[in-house]
Amino acid sequence: MVKFGLELVPQTAIEKIVNYAILAEEGGLDTVWITDHFYNRNTYVTLTAIALKTKRVLIGPGVTNPYVVNPVWTASAIASLDEISGGRVLLGIGAGDRVTLEKLSIPQAVPLAAIKESVTVIRELLRGNNVTFEGKFLKIRNARLSFKPERDVPIYIGAQGPKMLKLASRIGDGVLINASNPKDFEYASEIIKKAAGDRLDSLDIVAYTCFSVDYDREVARSKVVPIVAFIVAGAPEMVLERHGINKDKAARIKEALGKGDFKEAFKHVTEDMVKAFSIYGTPEDCIAAIEELTKVHVTHIVFGSPLGAKKKKAIEIVSREIVPAFK
Ligand code: F42
Fold this sequence. Notes:
The chain has one domain (3-221, 279-325): TIM Barrel, CATH 3.20.20. The protein contains 14 helices and 12 strands. It has helices spanning 14-26, 43-53, 71-85, 98-103, 111-126, 162-171, 182-196, 217-234, 237-242, 247-258, 262-267, 271-277, 283-294, 311-322, and strands spanning 3-8, 31-34, 58-61, 91-93, 131-134, 139-143, 155-158, 174-177, 204-208, 211-213, 279-281, 300-303. The strands form 3 sheets. Strands 3-2-1-12-9-8-7-4 form an 8-stranded parallel sheet. It has a two-stranded antiparallel sheet with strand order 5-6. The protein has a two-stranded parallel ribbon with strand order 10-11. A hairpin with a 4-residue loop joins strand 5 and strand 6 (139-143). The longest helix is centred in the last third of the chain and has 18 residues, at 217-234. The structure holds ligand 1. Ligand 1 binds at residues 35-37, 62-63, 65, 94-97, 100, 109-113, 158-164, 176-178, 208.
């Protein structure tokens, strides 16, 4: 059965984020993911607050990265969170958002090695092992946690590109794919199937969607436009081609965003862009779109930003009308 999760961006007071997580748990969702960007409220502080106020839902960073946060620190944070949540933690890790890394003058060097080595080291530390490691990205001598979780914590890897998808399928317990359209999952699942081999059945393939629901379709649509503008501006050419999006139109949006002219950028977001990069509309529209994703090997849907005009209302609609349609 398909699993459901909620992405929360800690841009608002932690108390509010915790209340959304409680709503998600009460509404029958399986997972809650907290994004990680240094300029928002701290991911682990937010997750700790959620851990203390929830009982069942699985929680984790979605996703942290090994450039800003040293993997040994991540291992310790995840083990601590596992303890305080009663064994409900998932770790989401990825190569990091390039724009954010640039602000810190951190080059996203050797991202494949960075993820592979970090996952290896974090897993060993979480198993209570003593780690000495000499890699391209990480060099660690005689490191060990003074405590450890009582189980193997599942590790999910954020991946979009072909090489990262391959790596994630080989070493991850799950793959978090930032996409909302079946075409992207058809593409990804070909790579995943080949790379995962025997592990395919146990691999959790997650659609980390840009999602917006409202009884008024136009209201739902208006909320995804700004996010879609940023996705289009950052999308590789191959992805634009996959969705038949005109490169010049995408370039116009990128240029306007670069100048900070959001109104101009959003004006150029077309219907094909919105359809390619988001799930939006009435509950029925969203159910139909999710059904399409389940046909292309997606095993887990994460409802991501913006969710809707009002987050609380959107989570209630998701819990009451969308999730039950799949149970
Ligand atoms: N990033 C954040 O910073 N914070 C978040 O909260 C966050 C959430 C999130 C949720 C879901 C998700 O899927 C991604 C999310 N991200 C978040 C983004 C994430 O951190 C990564 O940036 C993203 O998932 C990585 O995307 P990607 O698979 O396209 O990987 C990049 C690095 C890439 O270019 N991959 C290429 C590929 O084909 O997969 C390979 C690049 C390559 O070959 N590199 C060479 C190498 O050796 O590694 C050398 C390159 C060089 O010059 O160093």
